[in-house]
Amino acid sequence: MSKRSLLSEDGPTGGDGRRPTRESALRVARRVAGAARPALRVLATELGTPNRPGTPLFGNVQRRWVRNLPYAVAFAFAVSLLPSGVNVLHNDYGMAGSLAGALATAQSVPLLLAVTRPLQAWWVMFGANVVCAVVLTGVDGVAGRPWPWPPTVIVGYLALMLALSVRERRRTLIAVWLTTGVTGILFEAVAPDRSESSWVLMFVLSGVVLLLGAALRERGDAQRKLLEQETISEAERARRTLLEERARIARELHDVVAHHMSVITVQADSAPYRISGIPQEAQEEFGAIAASARESLAEMRRLLGVLRSEETERQDAPEKAPQPGIGQLPKLVEATVRAGVPVELALPEEPVALEPAVDLSAYRIVQEALANVVRHAPGASTRVSVTVTADRARLTVLVVNEPPAPPVTAPLETSGTGHGLVGMRERVRLVDGTLDTGPLPDGGFRVAAQLPLCAPRTPPDPLSTKDSDAP
């Protein structure tokens, strides 16, 4: 006899060889249990952790009828399934009337809870369905009928799956679906004789409903995030427009301030030569004033270099031109008339002494208003008036255009960048004035600005956004 046969017959495992087989089976069972324990833990966690409990379905929708739609649908299902469920369980399956009523209530009324807490409603309905399947195993009417899930149970369960799919996480939906399938498989092992198995139908239909509902929910979430991003982008675009317009105004005002600083420098440098008998200390003081003015001018030029974009750096020559004022409005009106817009201009009869910032702001407001007429209402008759109030404290700039005369031509632009009105508001705010813009009842448009003849000594806070948002 060979050594291998002696070990197999007389070894520590005995002659029948059963111990190794039993130990192997135990080891496999332990491994399966060890691998299944984390999955069961995750399953229990997902089934016990609802997502946003208490928040109604479609609660964030603005339309009221859409917010009330889930309540109406849930009420319709509950009202229809309750009597039909009692009738099916009592008359078709032969269940006792009181027990049939209790189970049908537990299988339909929780649909009302599913509007705000679908996962909690699933626990109630699923428990009632399991109890119903167990009870049906002891009645005589189950033969030849669907089991373990009667037709009314399937309809109510699918409605609950729809509520779950639009609220809960994907992992929770998978846990619910797997629990439904595993329960059906376990019931299949103890199925009554001559009963028609319905767990496969329930398993497949619930998976389809969960998949479709989750897809619709994710699509809605994607659209909502896209809308939020568009809103953020629009806000950022308006903010960028505001900053660009402020930078452009600062570049224009640089020439005005630089002119005054240059005058100060020249006067301080030439004072000892123009005025005789100035003491040495005064000459040194004038020199210090001129040096400070030159340093301030250099700092302003460095600041302008920060504000100037690459495009304006390439187009540097126009920015160095003298800044216009209301004295150049006749030329502006002539250019607008040549563009096909009839314009009437009314200026003060007597010359008005304006500070450079106020003069420039008045000109730019009229320029932008006429540009808007050319772009959006070509051919419309326009009136421009610049007047001084009776107390000679404020300057009124008014630009009113009528609707385009027939035949009405298509506007050159149907949507703008928003720089125009933003620039007007910024210029008015710069000199502490007021601006009123808006359409007229007859279809025209009106721009009215009130500017002080003297700009305020204390400029407004540049970080303030009051009256500077795009309309």
Question: What report would you give on this structure?
Answer:
- The chain has helices at residues 3-10, 18-48, 64-92, 97-108, 110-113, 118-136, 151-165, 170-189, 199-274, 280-307, 310-314, 316-319, 329-338, 356-376, 419-430; strands at residues 146-147, 196-197, 343-346, 382-388, 394-401, 434-439, 445-452.
- The model is unreliable at 1-19, 313-319, 412-418 and 461-471 (pLDDT under 50).
- It is elongated, with a radius of gyration of 42 Å.
- It has three domains: 19-230, no CATH class; 242-316; 324-452, Heat Shock Protein 90 (2-Layer Sandwich).
- The termini are far apart.
- Strands 3-4-5-7-6 form a five-stranded mixed sheet, with helices on one face. A two-stranded parallel ribbon has the order 1-2.
- It is α/β, with parallel strands linked by helices and 471 residues long.
- Residues 245-310 form the Signal transduction histidine kinase subgroup 3 dimerisation and phosphoacceptor domain.
- It catalyses: ATP + protein L-histidine = ADP + protein N-phospho-L-histidine.
- It holds the Pfam family HATPase_c.
